[in-house]
Design a protein that fits this description.
Blueprint lengths: L1 H13 L1 H8 L3 H29 L1 H21 L3 H33 L4 H25 L3 H19 L23 H31 L3 H4 L1 H24 L1 H20 L4 H16 L1 H10 L6 H29 L2 H18 L5
Helix pairs in contact: 1-4, 1-6, 1-7, 3-4, 3-5, 3-14, 4-5, 4-7, 5-14, 6-10, 6-13, 8-10, 8-12, 8-13, 8-14, 8-15, 10-11, 10-12, 11-12, 11-15, 13-14, 14-15
Length: about 350
């Protein structure tokens, strides 16, 4: 399910330019539409969390896994700005709801098996996103249109992953008739949410500004600039595959503090405006540092002793996605007032916050 969720998002991300060209969108209009996607995700979190607690994570995950590719296909058929915005909202809602449900299911697996697995699950999301992006490259090379690409690729990945997910697993459900649909994280989960917020803001900043930083500040070529997010993502996948062993050996608190330290060191390498090799090394260190934070935050939320798993994960996810959404505009705003290296310096402060609040994962 993590592979499916990542792959469908990667398929969409790989064809954003084609979607914008089809409707004739300006950069401003595209930015507003991307906010519709994010709004759909954030709105779905509390609803999905309540559904997980009432019905069970497995049923909710599989149900959304069927609806999610449909929303992707509908996007390729949208003829106007308004209809594209509506389908993007649905796509974001399906993506976000499935995120909450599958993380809840992953936490159940961890408890049943008796060992940490969440980091590996998130590595599978990254793998799926890469496969989805690769399908976009192939589609462009073959001259495939949006509809045929979205239909064929989503059908193939859905068939394989839904077949693999057809296992006899029964989730526990908790009926809470008086529970609110949305509950902001409380108690120690506030700090867990802050942890997720800091890591997600860093991820979003690197994704949207890494290439710009390399081109405008370091002075690299366009092709070299693309390597920034590439090395960041590659480092993140590798560490997420090893993350469960690391966390089991060190414990979640120490693992998160090491993550914050690596992220801090990476930011320092980047803002020194050293040779491009050092800056790329800095992005790799940042990928290493952020890799384990979100899996640890979701795992801690799902195992909270006082709040049901679905509600806890949805509240932490809201803060996490808030960080990912705020990251790019905050970096841009600060860079406009000063410089891009100064803006990236904010990420160093947030890495320090990760180190400071890591105790909330205990």
């Amino acid at each position: 399910m993590f592979v499916l969720n990542g792959a469908l998002f990667g398929i969409w991300a790989s064809r954003v330019p084609a979607v914008a060209e089809k409707i004739g969108l300006s950069h401003t209009e595209l930015g507003i539409l991307l906010l519709a996607l994010a709004a759909g995700a954030v709105c779905s979190f509390p609803i999905a969390g309540k559904a997980v607690d009432r019905v069970g994570a497995v049923k909710v995950t599989k149900l959304i896994a069927v609806a999610y590719p449909v929303s992707l296909i509908l996007m390729s058929l949208a003829p106007t700005y308004a209809t594209l915005g509506a389908t993007l909202f649905l796509f974001g809602a399906a993506h976000g709801a499935m995120d909450v449900a599958m993380n809840s299911w992953g936490a159940e697996v961890e408890r049943r098996v008796g060992r940490r697995m969440m980091s590996s699950f998130h590595a599978m999301w990254s793998l799926g996103a890469g496969l989805g992006a690769l399908s976009g490259y192939v589609a462009v090379q073959l001259g495939a249109g949006l509809f045929s690409h979205f239909l064929i690729s989503s059908a193939l990945i859905s068939a394989v992953t839904l077949y693999a997910a057809h296992i006899p697993w029964v989730s526990q459900s908790i009926v809470q008739t008086d529970a609110p649909v949305f509950a902001f994280p409380s108690g120690i989960l506030v700090l867990v949410g802050v942890l997720a917020f800091c890591a997600a803001l860093g991820e979003g900043a690197v994704a949207d500004w890494g290439a710009v930083y390399l081109r405008d500040v370091v002075g690299t070529s366009e092709s070299t600039a693309a390597l920034g997010y590439t090395v960041f993502s590659a480092a993140m996948v590798v560490i997420r595959l090893l993350g469960d062993r690391i966390t089991t050996h060190l414990g979640p608190v120490v693992a998160a503090r090491f993550g914050g330290a690596f992220a801090l060191a990476g930011v320092v390498c980047v803002i020194l405006t050293a040779p491009v090799e050092v800056v790329l090394f800095g992005f790799a260190l940042m990928g290493i540092g952020y890799a384990v934070i979100m899996p640890l935050a979701f795992s801690r939320a799902a195992n909270d002793p006082t709040i049901p798993a679905g509600q806890a994960i949805s509240s932490v996810a809201t803060l996490g996605y808030g960080g990912m959404l705020l990251g790019p505009p905050v970096i841009g705003f600060v860079a406009g007032l000063s410089t891009l290296p100064v803006a990236f310096g904010l990420l160093a402060a947030l890495a320090g916050v990760i180190i400071f609040v890591a105790g909330s994962l205990r």
